[in-house]
Amino acid sequence: MDTEKPLVSAVITTHGRRKYRILPGILSVLSQTFPPAELLIIDDNGEGSLIQRETELFADGLKAYAKSKGTELRYLKNKKNMGAQYSRNLGIRESRGEYIAFLDDDDRWSKDKLRLQMKLFNDKNVGLVYSKGRELRLRGEEIISAKPYNMALCFNEKANFKDLLYGDYIGSTSQAVIRREVFETCGMFDEGQPARQDYEMWIRISRKYSCRGVPEYLFDHCIHEGEQLGKDRGKVTAGLCRIFEIYGDDMGPTAKLHISMMTAKELFLMGKFGQMMKWGISSASFFIIALLWDRKELFYRIIWHLKRKSKEREFVRRKK
């Protein structure tokens, strides 16, 4: 990294959340020990809507405070609801920083997140830096429960192309800081990807750049009491199928086994048993092929899963 402090742009996309919900995330960006040069709030509520007007006034009111913290706050709005990936891409295009960090409007950063992550960009081959995170359940601002998010209990400090073809070892966009040139080389977030857009982006980046992780809890994914935790399983399934379609030729049989099993599971939960059987049969075929021709990789991933499950059980046991 150059001796001069690099410019970091923080991008928050927001949709459907009132100002009191997005304020903690904004304050977590403005409280960084390595403050970003700018914070872009991308409002995807649709121009003229009640929440859009409220968010714009709210953002304008925070600009002076942001400036006092060394960060320029910029507010941009979509004319209509365009989705998170469009909004993130708008943030990338409009940002000025050499590095871009993302935060979903319901997430929060720890105060040292950028400082610790930026250290790993000393290696010019590193294009993306991620971290551990927590999942918090909140009643107001009271923490009801907390648990490690995604892969935090079995965290890999490096995630290469082969790892990411197998599974998402990185996590959400709120965990990532990305070098700007990565988007020029690898392209932007795929707005045509039905779901798992972040995961598809990580695979694309890892093909050309090194991805490194900070083994500390540097972000919180917040779930507020009373919020619905539903997800569109149809979109999730379509997203997994599209990843398989795009990267299937790069995957070994163990990676194909894993994505087939994930797809079969989603279809089962949707009650689409005919399609589930198709993917289940594919899973069985890939397992046999992996057992014969990809045994080392298969056993490595099985052991990793067993280790992760063991740590999850131990975490639950300690919490009781």
The share of residues in extended strands comes to: 15-25%
Radius of gyration: 20 Å
Number of domains: 2
Largest sheet, described in full?
9 strands, mixed
CATH architecture of the largest domain: Alpha-Beta Complex
Structural class determined from secondary elements: alpha/beta
Mean pLDDT: 94
Task: Record the SSE blueprint.
Layout: E1 8-14, H1 19-30, E2 38-43, H2 50-68, E3 72-77, H3 84-94, E4 99-104, E5 107-109, H4 113-119, E6 126-139, E7 142-148, H5 161-166, E8 177-179, H6 180-186, H7 197-208, E9 210-224, H8 233-247, H9 253-270, H10 273-293, H11 295-319
Parallel strand pairs: 1-2, 1-4, 2-3, 6-9
Antiparallel strand pairs: 4-8, 5-9, 6-7, 6-8
Describe the structure.
It is a single chain. By secondary structure, this protein is an alpha/beta fold. The chain has 2 domains: 8-224, Spore Coat Polysaccharide Biosynthesis Protein SpsA, Chain A, CATH 3.90.550.10; 233-319, no CATH class. The protein is built from 11 helices and 9 strands. Helix 8 packs antiparallel against helix 9 and helix 9 runs antiparallel to helix 10. The mean pLDDT is 94.
Provide tags for this entry:
320 residues, alpha/beta, Spore Coat Polysaccharide Biosynthesis Protein SpsA, Chain A, 9-stranded mixed beta sheet, single chain
Summarize the structure.
The protein is an alpha/beta fold and 320 residues long. It contains 11 helices and 9 strands.
